Amino acid sequence: MDREFASFETEMNRGFLQVLVLVALEKRMYGYGMINRLEGMGYRVEENTLYPLLRRLEKNGWIGSEWDVSEERPRKFYSITAAGKVVRKQALALWSKQAGILEKFKEDVCDE
User: Fold this and answer.
1) What is the CATH number for 63?
2) What are the pLDDT digits (tens) for 37-93?
3) Which of 20, 28, 89, 97 fits as disulfide partner to 79, beta carbons 3.0 to 4.6 Å?
4) Strand-pair category, 63-68 with 75-80
């Protein structure tokens, strides 16, 4: 992959990951568990990308967190908030609309 496309891919992934996390956190998860789950689905995300995103989403009030210290190793679990569900619904609607527009353009102008 050339460097120009790598930059393009990074920009596309930035928004996608936000939506993906809001969808994933319908089920309570801890950060490392989320990384493993995403990788299991074919989407690789680095810890130094996910954790700052989780902090931003929490600061916005879209997710909440709580520590679970019941096991030997404490884990911070995240889940979506009511405000996050509103944002998620809007983001998924926008994503769907954009995907539909892209498909229409591909049908009209692409040879593929």
Assistant:
1) 1.10.10.10
2) 999 999 999 999 999 999 999 999 999 999 999 989 999 999 999 999 999 999 999
3) 28
4) antiparallel
